[in-house]
Task: structure prediction
Amino acid sequence: MNRRALLTSLALAPVIGGCRRMAVAGTPPPDLPPLRTITPGAFGTCVQVANLSDPAWLDLARTHVSQLTPEWEMKMEYILADGLGRPRLDRADRIAAFAHDNGMALHGHTLIWYAQGQEAFAGLDNAAFDRAFDGYIATVAGRYRGKVRSWDVVNEPILDDGSGLRDCHWSRRYGQDGYILRAFEKARIADPDAVLFLNEYNLEGIPAKGNQFLRLVERLLRAGCPLQGLGTQSHLWIDIPDGQIAAFIHELSQFGLPIHVSELDVSLRTGDRPDLRGQQERLVRQTARVTELAEAYSGLPPAQQFAFTTWGLRDTDSWFRRDDKDDGKDRPLPFDAFGQPNPMARALAAAFRA
Ligand code: 9MR
Result:
């Protein structure tokens, strides 16, 4: 299947939003350039409101970052915590204002996700469900029109083993492809300028899931979906076989659409099986995975290099450090607890400068 031809025939030219690159300078270590200055497209990270009052985070972000993704406060879990009738947009507003004031782009995350909204939408009859679904997208995407560069319109529609699409409260009303199509149509109406993304994880590490994603994208484009960008979260692990990441990015690029490496981190954990490898050996593997991904992204045509986002800056900001299996030693992100570069930051710099 020639995906680029499919795209052309559907007259869906790649869309790339403008990205401001004038973040205020901070104090990078002498041997590490600000990542935002060397990353093709934007260099992004996730953010929560709490970060905005952390001087060390602010310094690091202003030095390296040109795009922000709200980590959870622009999701239904926060916006609909008081119910459908009282959307809480205060925190997303604060993040949007910070991005604007600091010359950073904002990537909206996420409108429709199988994991959220179930409670708020429970018990609605079909007509009320439709009004709430369409109304949520109109309200949230409408409010940030002109403030976001892009949106993850639908997040994580595919089953973990790649065998098909998830059943969820959205698919039960509109069908597995149907809820995705509806969400993109409503987002397009609410914000005609934002680049609209489909976002998914484990595409590089689980080939069956990567293939299922590619098939879904083909179906959506054939159906006329205003899908304009492909987000590969890239929560990688150190033992993904050599070459598999680059091979997937190559496949993904065949649509000709902008690509967002949207949530990169690489935990050093390898699960519960016995593994005697020490941290240095794991970091070498991590560096190899990050290098492969960053080089594959760097090799894309410029119009497809949308942004390269890590899911946090410092190891201590990572969601891995918040779960009950944390041993305090994981180093999944580019900077350590003190904001000093980890091997990951140097691997990114080397790949982007090459
Ligand atoms: O890192 C995020 C964590 O703080 C939130 O509690 C959680 C639920 O909203 O989402 C985490 O981010 C996820 C992202 O939104 C989608 N891909 C997987 C990320 C890690 O779980």
Observations:
- Residues 6-25 have pLDDT under 50 and may be disordered.
- The two ends are 32 Å apart (CA to CA).
